Automatic annotation (TrEMBL):
It comes from the Bacteria. It is a multi-pass membrane protein. Residues 13-380 form the SLC26A/SulP transporter domain. This is SulP family inorganic anion transporter. The keyword tRNA processing does not apply. Its main location: membrane. The lineage of its organism: Bacteria, Bacillati, Actinomycetota, Actinomycetes, Kitasatosporales. It comes from Streptomyces mirabilis.
Length: 490
């Protein structure tokens, strides 16, 4: 087949080929960094990136969205590996993929868009804070405490320990330099910025570490095949554990929500076909199922790679498939190249990524316009840091539901007293138990020696608790010899 006929079948091949190179260069350091931060072999991050390109990338859903290991799941994966071991991770990811396939088949993907944005942003903010705290220890070559609160509380002591060690200071300096390069990368000339910032920062850090012979830790290389572990029958038995099932649910909720919110964001970046949410959820499920079978990291759609894909001029899903091919070739032909990457540089990249997950501007904006939403965001983030990922998300969802119920139960009581005759009371809106104290306070303040006409025709909803309370109030009001309360319904 000649070039002209190939271009006839794939009219956007040139744009997609160029975009795939950019996405590959963006994904490479992030795949490795996320894996190392998750406490698994670096190659497993590449495996997930490859599957994200070759499996999820081929499926329908969101044509320009790119999937792979994400910083948003790093904390949860690290906790799962620490608690249950690397052997169980594949089973957890496999079960996550199967659940996503099932939800996609049941057409539940669209309902993830109903999750409060404040909860999702709070979830990412909590993840970002824990990720930053944990990677600051890695930058200094120190072991991080297990819980989020302990990570934050132990930072002052870690600073003192690092200041006493020449090796730790060199490691911190390299990590801090990596962050500085990432922050300043946008200000460099356009020709330089054709290289993704994360890749440029890692290359510079590697050159500095090697050139000056800095005593810093490097990525351990095991080889692609040696890192893949198929789940054992014993590992599948762990699914009977309540803790493992909770981890599966947390993976499913967070990975699905992050992927579908990312899809909505990517749709705003281009004018091409819109995302089919149920198909995209099934594509993510298929990818996670394969990742689970290979014992790799879970995947989500990643907004950084997806945005880079769109901005690089990608037109079809061929770009994300090709980026998976380049990751596979790198992992197969150049695995030893990973062994020269200093760990402080990867920690610096993840500190920068974690900071981008903390929506400071959004919190300020929400506080000015929607304080309830801002409260949900902050409480979700703090709960994740203070308790754990799964419980923190549940607390955020519960608070968001309670806030919505409170706002939906808006009720108004209008009292008209002409000084003679019956007092007229008009109740409108949604009368629920949440507003019951306010309703009763207003009704009990009416004169006891006057007849009352209570008009309920303006109510859209009257729950059982309110109905019972109104009946009891009516009986009490009539006990003093007053005429019975006249109630009018719609």
């Amino acid at each position: 087949m000649n070039t002209s006929s190939l271009l006839g079948k794939l009219p956007h091949l040139r744009q997609d080929f160029a975009a795939s190179i950019v996405v590959f260069l963006v994904a490479l350091p992030l795949c490795v960094g996320v894996a190392v931060a998750s406490g698994v072999p670096a190659e497993l991050g590449l495996v997930t990136g490859i599957v994200g390109g070759l499996v999820t990338g081929l499926m329908r859903g969101s044509s320009l969205q790119v999937s792979g290991p994400a910083a948003g799941l790093t904390v949860l994966v690290f906790e799962a590996v620490r608690e249950y071991g690397l052997a169980v991770l594949g089973v957890v990811v496999l079960a996550t993929g199967v659940l996503q396939l099932l939800m996609g088949a049941l057409k539940l993907g669209r309902y993830f868009r109903a999750i409060s944005v404040a909860v999702v942003e709070g979830m990412l903010a909590g993840i970002g804070l824990v990720l930053i705290a944990g990677q600051l220890y890695s930058m200094a070559g120190l072991k991080a405490p297990a819980s989020g609160l302990d990570k934050l509380a132990g930072l002052p002591e870690a600073v003192v320990d690092a200041a006493r060690s020449t090796e730790a200071l060199a490691s911190v300096g390299l990590g801090a330099g990596t962050i500085a390069v990432l922050v300043l990368w946008r200000r460099l000339p356009r020709r330089v910025r054709t290289v993704p910032g994360a890749l440029g920062a890692v290359v510079l850090a590697t050159l500095v570490a090697s050139g000056f012979g800095l005593p810093v830790a490097k990525v351990e290389v095991r080889g692609l095949v040696g890192s893949i572990r198929l789940p054992s029958l014993e590992a599948f038995g762990e699914l009977a554990s309540v803790g493992v099932l909770g981890t599966v649910l947390a993976f499913t909720l967070i990975a699905s929500a992050e992927s579908l919110f990312s899809a909505a964001a990517v749709d705003r970046l281009h004018d091409g076909p819109r995302t089919e949410y149920d198909r995209e959820l099934m594509a993510q499920g298929a990818g996670n199922t394969v990742c689970g079978l290979l014992g790799a990291l879970p995947m989500t759609a990643v907004i950084v790679r997806s945005a880079a894909n769109v901005q690089a001029g990608a037109r079809t899903k061929a770009s994300r498939v090709l980026h998976g091919v380049w990751l596979l070739l790198f992992a197969a032909l150049l695995p030893a190249a990973l062994g020269v990457i200093p760990l402080p540089a990867l920690a610096g990249i993840l500190v920068h990524a974690g900071w981008k997950l903390v929506p400071l501007r959004e919190v300020v904006s929400l506080w000015r316009e929607h304080r309830g939403e801002a409260l949900v965001l902050v409480v979700t983030a703090v709960s994740i840091v203070a308790v754990s990922m799964f419980e923190g998300v549940l607390i955020g969802l519960a608070l968001a539901i309670a806030k919505t119920a409170w706002e939906a139960s808006h009720v108004r009581l209008e009292v008209i007293d002409k000084g003679a005759g019956p007092v007229q009371a008009y109740l409108s809106g949604n009368a629920t138990f949440l507003r019951l104290p306010k309703i009763l306070d207003s009704l009990e303040a009416l004169p006891q020696d006057r007849p009352v006409e209570l008009d309920l025709s303006g109510l859209h909803h009257l729950d059982h608790a309110c109905r019972t309370a109104l009946e009891n109030w009516s009986a009490r009001h009539s006990e003093a010899g007053t005429e019975p309360v006249k109630v009018t319904t719609g």
